Amino acid sequence: MDALKDEVELLLKNDNLGRTIKDVRNTLDLLINARNKVAADPQAAPMGLAKLQTPAKQTLDSVHESLKKINGRANKYSKALDKKFKDKPLPGTENDALSSHPSLINRAIAMHLLREGQFSVASTFIEEAKAHPPHPEPTAGTPNPYLQEAHDNEVANGAFDSKKLQEDFAEMYHILHELRENRNLEPAIIWARDRSDLLESRGSNLEFELCRLHFVCLFVGQDEYGYPTDSTEGPMRAWEYARREFVPFSRRYAREVQQLMGALAYYENVADSPYRMYFFNDSAWEEVATSFTREFCSLLGLSADSPLYIAVTAGAIALPALLKMQNLMSLTRAEWTTQHELAVEIPLPPSFHFHSIFVCPVAKEQCTDQNPPMMMPCGHVVCKETLDKLSKGSKFKCPYCPGESLPKEAKKVFL
Amino acid sequence: MANLASAKLDAESHLLLDQTLLQMPLQLARRNLKTAQRYVERDIASVTKDLKAAVAAATKGSATQADALKALDKMIATMKGLEKKLVTLQEEEMKIHRSSKARIEHLEELYGMQSLMDVKYDGWSRTRLSRLLVDYLLRSGYAESAALLAKEKGIEELVDVDAFELCVKIEKSLREGHKVQEALNWCQDNKTALKKIDSDLEYQLRLQQFIELVRAGTSKDGGDDVVHDADEDGDQGYDTAKLLQAREHAKKYLLTPPAGSTDIGLVGRAAGLMAFDSDTEVEPYKTLYSQSRWSDLAALFLHTHNSLYSLPGRPLLHIALSAGLSALKTPACHSIYTSVSSNSASSTTTVCPICSTELNELAVNVPYAHHSKSIVENDPVVLPNGRIYGRERLKKFNEKVGTEKGWVRDPIAGVSGKRWREEEVRKVFIS
């Protein structure tokens, strides 16, 4: 990296057209000088011009010279670049499974822009994509992409409901903005209350958490807009709020509500009380904002972080390993995108694991819908194919314990 | 321990996608320099010539003072013009180098991070995504969105919006305007570079010009004077002037196919074209007359443009995305059964990016990731309905929804779902 930096620094400081311009200006000076002399003295013309020849040639040569020098520097930089990326070829593009679905990629991008709150870019993009729909290109996996265009052109023909999505995300950003910037819980609480049943059945405490935070704010002496009020009034207002709002929570969150009410007893020195953690939690706002985003996206059936971001990041992490594999496989003329399963394991950080994975301990293969995991009465799990092989239809022994069972006693399980 | 290893960030191998990031400005700088060179050569040659002539005239004594002044003024004007042109080019050059510097610094940040879990990596990777998106948008011809996105993200120095502007314009003039002139000008500007990569773009453009001339010459209804055509020469209404022009054009441009051309018969076929009307059903002439040749030309231009700047054949976004889809995809992502470990039904799990609407259909055609070991939550238990949960997660969910003591509910079914006695939850062994 440093080598590259040095080269660019030289290009910026010394070896650029500034050099050439200087030489051009020298020539100009010579010419203007000569002209002045000739103008002043009519007799000097032949002499002056003749005298001009050699120095003019010199300066003109140096113009060429400087250009050569700049070119040389650019070449050096180019070599340094080549050296840096010599062992980093880009993966081959022959088997790009995505080129046959440009509309799907466009849809993913449009949704990404919307969920990132870049509404103006998103709408410009959707307009442009509508005006020039992309052209699917055939690839190995999809030799005839045009056949699929009907469902593929959602962005182009407007079936992709960007408006609805934009409204949804606009609401989300409005609520988040109020939460983060203005410390205003009101819009979030209204949102959560409207979906109270839904959130509750999902096992989400969002509504209660928001209300609790509101209680805390009042308690430590902030009014609805986060401005400090007379602190002695705080606990009183919090108590009023609790009496008014906490009734629906009293059954499910009895313990938490009790704790909050208990804190009221320490209203004079809550910072030293056992209830301290509820009242002085700096990350509370960020936590609430994060859990709000998650619930909001989940209710739309979307993941909380942009899938495009996660996938591209995972892709960059996976590329070196994939590339190595591709090189190996091209020797055997197999292509990695036409297989059902990648040939090598790609180590991704734990934050990139979402589904549980079941690999049959006997067959060493991942389970699929066609070959689901089956649990024997002893509690051990193998895949269906293994089970069929082991049992051949009759009573068999579990490969992991002495337990014996009939194949029909095994039960399909879901991870 | 395994987690630590998989989160390690190896900056050097992580730069795979970023080669073009630095190559592009270098190519732009080189082109800029070439232009400068062309100006310099031309103007200096002219000044040298003028000087020589002036000296010769002066020494012969045939030149007056006025003549000498005139000659000098001409040289001065030439050099001043050159200076002005170079100053403009230098501004451009410095802009390019500054962007190179910004890019190197951007890549260098990566060397300061050790872990993929680093918050800084998250930010860096988001910038990378924006870069790749802008690149994709530019390549797809969505220049306005690209410029807007670059601006909003403040990454103008990391992307090449300006460089693509011309490219997009030319591509459009071919695809939509059915005009070759702009593309031909571009070929002229990049003549040597195109020769180096054996491009036959210019030849194809010239061929198209020829086809259009023949089309204009043979079309019965396309001519200006349809009515009179029949009387003139009795020549079936052909526009002979146009056809003659076509022949001249072919002589001039088409006789020698470029070195890179693999299609030797092309000239012959093109010549045969003159014998057929533009609505002919006869192959290969029908194909040559076809309007779809224009979009082929546009595609060829894009392809040539991209290889000239050593851009990869497909957008980098495709490369990163298809690798990512595969690395993340599991058999569960397109299963007909609800995934217990990642779904949108309960707040105990997060939605997997491949299952999310954005990418789900795209991922249908890519292979899923290889795993040699099961990955399950700690202490897995199974409900009577066959769903497997980590004991802790199940417990937490039931606490949150306030399930009655001694009972258990399935998070996917929610509070209104069936409940079971705790004893019915069984331990399951997954190895």
From TrEMBL, chain A:
<dbReference type="GO" id="GO:0061630">
    <property type="term" value="F:ubiquitin protein ligase activity"/>
</dbReference>
<keyword id="KW-0862">Zinc</keyword>
<dbReference type="InterPro" id="IPR037683">
    <property type="entry name" value="Rmd5_dRing"/>
</dbReference>
<keyword id="KW-0963">Cytoplasm</keyword>
<dbReference type="InterPro" id="IPR045098">
    <property type="entry name" value="Fyv10_fam"/>
</dbReference>
<dbReference type="GO" id="GO:0005634">
    <property type="term" value="C:nucleus"/>
</dbReference>
<dbReference type="InterPro" id="IPR027370">
    <property type="entry name" value="Znf-RING_euk"/>
</dbReference>
<keyword id="KW-0479">Metal-binding</keyword>
<dbReference type="InterPro" id="IPR044063">
    <property type="entry name" value="ZF_RING_GID"/>
</dbReference>
<dbReference type="GO" id="GO:0034657">
    <property type="term" value="C:GID complex"/>
</dbReference>
<dbReference type="InterPro" id="IPR006594">
    <property type="entry name" value="LisH"/>
</dbReference>
<dbReference type="InterPro" id="IPR013144">
    <property type="entry name" value="CRA_dom"/>
</dbReference>
<dbReference type="InterPro" id="IPR013083">
    <property type="entry name" value="Znf_RING/FYVE/PHD"/>
</dbReference>
<dbReference type="Pfam" id="PF10607">
    <property type="entry name" value="CTLH"/>
</dbReference>
<feature type="domain" description="RING-Gid-type">
    <location>
        <begin position="360"/>
        <end position="401"/>
    </location>
</feature>
<dbReference type="GO" id="GO:0008270">
    <property type="term" value="F:zinc ion binding"/>
</dbReference>
<protein>
    <recommendedName>
        <fullName>GID complex catalytic subunit 2</fullName>
    </recommendedName>
</protein>
<keyword id="KW-0863">Zinc-finger</keyword>
<dbReference type="GO" id="GO:0005737">
    <property type="term" value="C:cytoplasm"/>
</dbReference>
<dbReference type="GO" id="GO:0043161">
    <property type="term" value="P:proteasome-mediated ubiquitin-dependent protein catabolic process"/>
</dbReference>
<comment type="similarity">
    <text>Belongs to the RMD5/GID2 family.</text>
</comment>
<dbReference type="InterPro" id="IPR024964">
    <property type="entry name" value="CTLH/CRA"/>
</dbReference>
Automatic annotation (TrEMBL), chain B:
<keyword id="KW-0862">Zinc</keyword>
<feature type="domain" description="CTLH">
    <location>
        <begin position="180"/>
        <end position="221"/>
    </location>
</feature>
<dbReference type="GO" id="GO:0034657">
    <property type="term" value="C:GID complex"/>
</dbReference>
<dbReference type="GO" id="GO:0061630">
    <property type="term" value="F:ubiquitin protein ligase activity"/>
</dbReference>
<keyword id="KW-0479">Metal-binding</keyword>
<dbReference type="InterPro" id="IPR006595">
    <property type="entry name" value="CTLH_C"/>
</dbReference>
<dbReference type="GO" id="GO:0008270">
    <property type="term" value="F:zinc ion binding"/>
</dbReference>
<protein>
    <recommendedName>
        <fullName>Protein FYV10</fullName>
    </recommendedName>
</protein>
<feature type="domain" description="RING-Gid-type">
    <location>
        <begin position="352"/>
        <end position="413"/>
    </location>
</feature>
<dbReference type="Pfam" id="PF10607">
    <property type="entry name" value="CTLH"/>
</dbReference>
<keyword id="KW-0963">Cytoplasm</keyword>
<dbReference type="InterPro" id="IPR006594">
    <property type="entry name" value="LisH"/>
</dbReference>
<comment type="similarity">
    <text>Belongs to the FYV10 family.</text>
</comment>
<dbReference type="GO" id="GO:0005737">
    <property type="term" value="C:cytoplasm"/>
</dbReference>
<dbReference type="InterPro" id="IPR013144">
    <property type="entry name" value="CRA_dom"/>
</dbReference>
<dbReference type="GO" id="GO:0005634">
    <property type="term" value="C:nucleus"/>
</dbReference>
<dbReference type="GO" id="GO:0043161">
    <property type="term" value="P:proteasome-mediated ubiquitin-dependent protein catabolic process"/>
</dbReference>
<dbReference type="InterPro" id="IPR024964">
    <property type="entry name" value="CTLH/CRA"/>
</dbReference>
<feature type="zinc finger region" description="RING-Gid-type">
    <location>
        <begin position="352"/>
        <end position="413"/>
    </location>
</feature>
<comment type="function">
    <text>Involved in the proteasome-dependent degradation of fructose-1,6-bisphosphatase.</text>
</comment>
<dbReference type="InterPro" id="IPR044063">
    <property type="entry name" value="ZF_RING_GID"/>
</dbReference>
<dbReference type="InterPro" id="IPR045098">
    <property type="entry name" value="Fyv10_fam"/>
</dbReference>
